[in-house]
Design a protein that fits this description.
The protein is of the alpha/beta class. It is built from 8 helices and 6 strands, in the order αααβααβββαβαβα. The radius of gyration is 17 Å and the shape is globular.
């Protein structure tokens, strides 16, 4: 069942317009690897949510189920923390979730948004990535990468918002449950396999 879903997700991802600027902002090898890792949509059904919640509740549930979240993101991620404090110029800023990718050798900041993508989210993430690169990135590491997870996004809005940004940022949607058609197909397939 899980393999079927992953295979289907991979097939869908290869056809989708990905909303990021990794090729323009990361070294070639890192950009290629991050493009392979990045998904257009992440499934957060493991959270057990069936309706919209506040961003803090979404974050709390993700942290409670960090193992499942890390598996959904892909291989190589390590968890650094949530509400990670970035202190600069006598001010504190907080990124929702901070990860490190061992293969890419990059910090990865994740911002969670419960509504539709807004262009101003790019500016905020760009600022966080600048702070991460200035205050926490080691000399041997690649640039920090940002992922903005929104309940919904319009690819063209994201494309325009990213056009003059020089930090690597990807915008992905998330879903809280399997689409009903996918769930129905999966159940029918599982029932057929059990009857064999």
């Amino acid at each position: 069942m899980l393999n079927h879903l992953k295979a289907r997700t991979y097939h869908i991802e290869k056809k989708a317009n990905l909303s990021h600027n990794f090729k323009q902002t990361l070294p070639a090898g890192v950009a290629e690897q991050m493009t392979e890792l990045f998904k257009n949509k992440y499934n957060l059904a493991f959270l057990g949510l069936y309706e919209t919640v506040r961003e803090k509740e979404l974050e709390r549930r993700l942290i409670e189920k960090i193992k499942q979240f890390m598996l959904e993101l892909g291989n190589g991620f390590t968890f650094i923390g949530n509400q990670h404090r970035l202190h600069y110029n006598h001010k504190d800023y907080y990124t929702d979730i901070l990860l490190y990718h061992r293969v890419l050798q990059s910090l990865v900041a994740i911002e969670l948004k419960i509504g539709e993508f807004k262009p101003e989210y790019i500016g905020k993430m760009n600022f966080y990535l600048g702070l991460l690169d200035k205050t926490e990135k080691k000399k041997n590491e690649n640039p920090s990468i940002g992922i903005i997870l929104c309940a919904d996004k319009d690819h063209l809005d994201v494309e325009i918002a990213l056009q003059d940004i020089h930090k690597p940022i990807g915008v992905a949607a998330y879903e809280l449950s399997l689409p009903s058609k996918e769930l129905e197909k999966l159940i029918i397939s599982e029932l057929k396999n059990q009857n064999r």
